[in-house]
Specification:
- This protein has 134 residues and is an alpha+beta fold.
- The protein has one domain: Roll (2,3-Dihydroxybiphenyl 1,2-Dioxygenase, domain 1).
- Helix content is 25%, strand content 34%.
- The chain has 3 helices and 7 strands; from the N terminus they run βαβββαβββα.
- The protein has a 4-stranded mixed beta sheet, with helices on one face. Strands 5-6-7 form a 3-stranded antiparallel beta sheet, with helices on one face.
- The chain is elongated and about 50 Å long.
- It starts with a strand and ends with a helix.
Length: 134
């Protein structure tokens, strides 16, 4: 199974970006807002992988259509509570919790979306500084 990205939640986007991008040197590749207005930034971690950072959000993801459907069914067959499949402009997704109560997401991208640092009209200061350097 191919994992495109994993999502993490933060209550301090600025400190999170300072740590991962500033100190660890990972590259911020995309900024945007969720439909409900929360920040959603993607940080490249190497090997073609990334993690999504969400402002106070909840999240993670998967690949091929058959794997997506099989993962959904496997979770249901094992008694794991899953949300309905949510259709998005770029694909579809569903959420569930692991045994530790950590909320996870499996997502299938069916359309390519462009990486951009300009998807958030009111970015945190770290992103503003990156945009000024570009």
């Amino acid at each position: 199974m191919y994992i495109d990205h994993v999502g993490i939640n933060t209550n301090d986007m600025e400190a999170t970006l300072q740590f991962y991008c500033g100190i660890l040197g990972m590259r911020l590749v995309r900024t945007t807002r969720t439909p409900d207005g929360r920040r959603h930034y993607n940080v490249e971690i190497g090997g073609g992988n990334a993690f999504a950072v969400f402002d106070g959000a909840e999240l993670p993801t998967a690949g091929e259509l058959e794997e997506f459907d099989a993962a959904y069914q496997r979770l249901k067959d094992h008694g794991v509570a899953v949300t309905e499949i949510i259709e998005r402009g770029y694909g579809k997704t569903f959420y569930f919790h692991d045994p530790n109560g950590i909320r996870l997401q499996i997502e299938l991208k069916t359309k390519q979306d462009a990486d951009s640092l300009e998807g958030d009209s009111d970015p945190v200061p770290y992103v503003r500084a990156l945009l000024q350097q570009a």
